[in-house]
Amino acid sequence: MGLHFYFTARDAKHLLFGLILIEIFLVAIFVADTLLGQPKWTIHVLFDLDGEGNIPAWFSSVQLFLIGLVFFLKGRQSDPDYRPSSLFFLIVGAGFIFLSVDEAAAIHEKITHVLTPIAWVPRFKGDHGVWVFIYILVGVSLCFATYRDLMAMWKRYRSATSILAVGMGLFLIGVVGLEIISFQFLRSGSTPLLYQAEVALEELLEMSGESIMLYGTLLLAPQESGPHAS
Asked: Residue 112 to residues 32, 123, 130, 141, 206: CA-CA distances in angstroms?
């Protein structure tokens, strides 16, 4: 039995618009809470973009999970004899679901905690960010291993893949680029407002990147896979 997706490109665009509005709202609450000196402890805990296990973290986790789920469904839909292969879609789906679990359970922080005592492991100032080097190594290795599928995906689904690339770029700028700047220059405590501004921008880029990737995945999902796909 085939899998069918009952939505249109217009539906996906409306979803993207709604998600971006939610993200702006979440960042606005964080900024207001910071500027007002965190007057309500409950609000701070629920909406702290620099915290774990709160509303923004779960919002990001759900978005990443949905991206992974759609890739899994695409893998079930794809013709295994043609690139991009069903295995490629399943690997990408598994990667996003791992990132979803990481967002909810802060696996990357635990990796840093475990590997920090090892002297030769690279890190940033203050023993921060050990996970960055591990994740970059894994990500680059996967890109090399799936290079032919990535090129086939670009050729077969150029519009959806371009949107996915834009979303991934924003996501990586937020979750890696700005995080590195934070590790190196902003975590000393001497510039608290600048650090909070960096957190707000970092999380906005991360969440909006996820939304754009979800939009691209939803555009990708209904398209035919196989030798006659357009």
From this structure: 31, 9, 5, 20, 20
Q: Quote the CA–CA distance of 61 and 155 in Å, as a whole number.
A: 30
**118 backbone dihedrals φ, ψ, rounded to 5°:** -80, 115
What local confidence, expressed as pLDDT, does residue 4 receive?
Answer: 53
Torsion sign (Cα): 217, 219, 220, 224: positive
Helix axes 158-172, 147-156, angle to 10 degrees: 120
The span from the CA of 217 to the CA of 83, in Å, is: 17
Opening angle at CA 74, ends 12 and 103, nearest 5? 70
Q: What is the pTM of this model?
A: 0.91
Which of 36-40, 74-78, 100-104 has the least mean pLDDT? 74-78
Amino acid residing at 22: I
DSSP category for residue 186: I
Single-letter amino acid, residue 111: I
Q: Which two tokens stand for residue 224?
A: 């035919």
